[in-house]
Amino acid sequence: MKLLFLFLLAGSNLLFTDWHADFETARKEAKANGNYILLNFSGSDWCAPCIKLRQEVFGSAAFEQLANNSLELYDADFPRKKKNQLAKELQQSNDALAEKYNPLGKFPYTVILTPDGKVVKAWEGYPGNNSTLFIEQLKSVCDAKRP
């Protein structure tokens, strides 16, 4: 059982290897690389649709390819369990992002932004519960125009 838990824990960390540790870095990289920013609001330890979205979409090879070519990634996480609490500065940053881009507190909530912070498109929840469809929607936004 312990081995299974460690395997799952290690696998979940792999899903976020290309995600930026802070939003400002994602913004700077987007500007430098001519990419959009994918800002995802999640509740990593309590929101079942957030967990499903992370596993089925953000953990897929198709998403990884799209992200490597067109996106800078940032996950504004809002965990509830005490053991998963974020550092105070990071929590304040995520709170400010939520106030600006997700004032109704929807989870999951995914936003495509220009490097200057303009909203290009937003999705509430896990659209259609279909990873292929959601990745196609993301790709169409990225292909339509470049920031």
From TrEMBL:
Residues 1-21 form the signal peptide. Keywords: Signal. SUPFAM superfamilies: Thioredoxin-like. The keyword Signal applies. Gene3D superfamilies: Glutaredoxin. The keyword Transferase does not apply. Pfam families: Thioredoxin_2. Residues 14-147 form the Thioredoxin domain. Coiled coil: none annotated. This is Thioredoxin family protein. The lineage of its organism: Bacteria, Pseudomonadati, Bacteroidota, Chitinophagia, Chitinophagales.
